[in-house]
Amino acid sequence: MKNLQLAILLTLFIISLATHTILPLNYLSLSFATISLLIGVYMVWQIHKSKRLLDFILGGIKKASLSDYIVIEKAITTTKSMYTSIQNHDFKNRDEVIKKLNIFLNENKQYLGVWAAWEPNQFDNNDALNINKNGNTHGQMSPYVYRGDKGIEVTYLEDLQNEKFYTRPLNEEKLTILEPFHFDIDGQETLMTTVAMPIRKNGKAVGVVGVDIHLKSAKNIHLNLLDYSTSEELDLERLVYTLKKQGGQYAIIGQAIQVLKEERSEMIEYLVNTTTEVSKSTAQFVNIAKQSSISANEVSSAIVDIASGASSQANETEQGTEKVELLGDIIEKDQLELQRLNELIIEITVNKEAAERVTHDLIKSNDTTTETMSEVANKLLKSTESTKKIERATDGILTITEQTNLLALNASIEAARAGEYGKGFAVVANEIRKLAEQSKQFSEGITKDISELGKNSKEASTTMKQLEEIIIYQSSNVNNVNDKLIDISKTVETMKDGITDLNHSGKQMTSNKGEIVAIMQSLSAVAEENAAGTEEITASIEELTGHVDKSTHSSEQLTNIVEQLKKVTDRLKV
To answer: Where do transmembrane segments lie in this chain (predicted)?
Structure first.
């Protein structure tokens, strides 16, 4: 009901203004705000009415006698389309650009030509490779697709730095329409203009795309007659002056436009006054937005710090991974050495059995002299001593195994302290502990075999003492015994080398363990820095939230004002 009353009142108010009558006194009880709003709506309506009439007049002018302007406006749209197409397309080669330009020219018969030119090496960084290729003498990417005697042809623009159609839009970094100029096309002076706009890359102008147009009559281009986004508002005074100067029907049209302008001035003045409140709210909103921007910058700075820390943490983690891999390689080498040691023990056993057979032959032949038996006994004694050395080396291996097991335990503890980042290393440490346990078992087996070997050596020594009384022994069997004993000696030496390698690997493992611990400590420090950065972000976000709340309040006020104006205009449309 209230809306209906308001609509009726608005209708009466408009009729009174149109007929110069006065509303009944009982309507004068309305608030000043309501009356102001009604006046504002009426003026907005009059402004739109005048503007529609003015647009209709200008449209008629352009269609009747300024056909060049229609083509220019179309060229503006085409230039923007070419710009968008080039900006959003990832061209694989230069031919694709030329094909795209061909399409634009084919679709627009009114154009003389279309073109796209880049600064040196800004298209594909291959200008040098395109010199004297396909008629391009300088190699720069600057194809010009135009209508020639043979139809649509392609050439390349040269000396671009001295051409206004290229330098103006490139330097001004906006859509540009050149003043009409004469250009030689196939031996004829042609009046033309160019619509061009810059090509951007990473926010910087790196080239220009444009359309060339043949002008039929326009020797000067009035930008206020063109409808494009970068032009300024229509300069009515210049337009009225130009039309009056033409005389005849143009003078009548100019006079009509001047009358509309004068009637509209007062309406615009009141409309500006009624928007003061909106301007104040907008200014307040801008101020709050600036504060929000400052807080956002603080958040951005903290995020950058966290990103840097995360990068450092990633590098440290990568180094830790490399060290763990190196440790794994060392452990694999230890396994190979242990396997090799087992093979050597087997070889010792085989050689020992061969020696026993030879000894049995010596007993049978009874050809061996006491001196030879004594020598064999000495060899066996040395073998026993070597066996003791092996036993001591095996004890050393057991010690290393225990130390490795202890290091693995310490590594597991450190990994547990590292939390999530140490899970992977904890798995590696557990595997190291298992390998150490296996090494211990292998070493105990070696000790057992060596003990058995010592026992057998003692028995052989006793047998040799009993054989000292034997005088005759075949010389060939003596040589065989010597050869077998030499083989045993070589095997023992090889075993010593393997044990030395195991000791070296143990030292490397200890050294790498220290480096891994240091890396984990560094990761912990970076984590602490990340935590501090997170606290800073939290504080900045809280501050930003406060500003956002203020922005919301201001925007609500602005929305209420706009909604009130929209409600009135909606009623007016009905």
So the answer is: 28-45
33: burial class by Cβ within 10 Å (0-12, 13-18, 19+)? Answer: exposed
Range list of H helices, 89-140: 94-107
Q: State pLDDT tens for residues 386-441.
A: 777 777 777 788 788 788 878 878 877 877 887 777 777 778 878 887 887 887 78
Q: Which two tokens stand for residue 514?
A: 């220290």
Size of the chain in residues:
574
**536-565: average pLDDT:** 62
CATH classification at residue 373: 1.10.287
324 vs 206, residue with greater confidence: 206
**Using CA atoms, how far apart are residues 77 and 362, in angstroms rounded to an integer?**
114
Question: How far apart are alpha carbons 519 and 320 in whole angstroms?
Answer: 6
Range of weakest confidence among 98-112, 127-141, 545-559: 545-559
Please, which residues bridge with residue 369 across strands? none
Long-range contacts of 537-540 (CB under 8 A, 24+ apart): 537/299, 537/302, 537/303, 537/306, 540/295, 540/298, 540/299, 540/302
Q: Which residue has the tokens 């250009």?
A: 183
Residues 482, 460 share a domain: yes
Q: Which amino acid is at 286?
A: V
Mean pLDDT, the chain, whole residue set: 70
Task: Let me know whether 23 and 126 are in one domain.
Answer: no
Indicate if 313 and 444 belong to the same structural domain. yes
CB-based contacts of 279: which residues, under 8 Å, 6+ apart? Answer: none
Interatomic CA distance for residues 565 and 558, integer angstroms = 11
- pLDDT by residue (tens digit) across 176-195? 999 888 877 767 788 889 99
- On whether both 138 and 275 belong to a single domain, the answer is yes
Residue 258's pLDDT band (cuts 50, 70, 90): low
- Interval 319-345 mean pLDDT: 70
| Beta strands, E only, 224-358 | none
Q: How far apart are CA 141 and CA 467, in angstroms?
A: 103
What are phi and psi for residue 424, nearest 5 degrees? -60, -40
Task: Judge whether 540 and 302 are in contact, CB under 8 Å.
Answer: yes
pLDDT at 481: 63
Q: Rounded to an integer, what distance in angstroms lies between the CA atom of residue 217 and that of residue 109?
A: 18
- Domain annotation covers residue 439: yes
Do 75 and 13 belong together in one domain?
A: no
| 266, 402: one domain | no
Range in 142-156, 380-394, 524-538 the model is least confident about:
524-538
Number of domains the chain is built from: 3
At a CB cut-off of 8 Å and minimum separation 6, what does 352 contact?
Answer: 453, 456, 488
pLDDT for 469-483, tens place per residue?
665 555 566 567 667
Q: Are 321 and 471 in contact (CB under 8 A)?
A: no
Nearest by Cα to 193 from 171, 173, 168: 168
Q: Is residue 564 part of a domain?
A: no
Q: Give the CATH number, domain containing residue 229.
A: 3.30.450.20
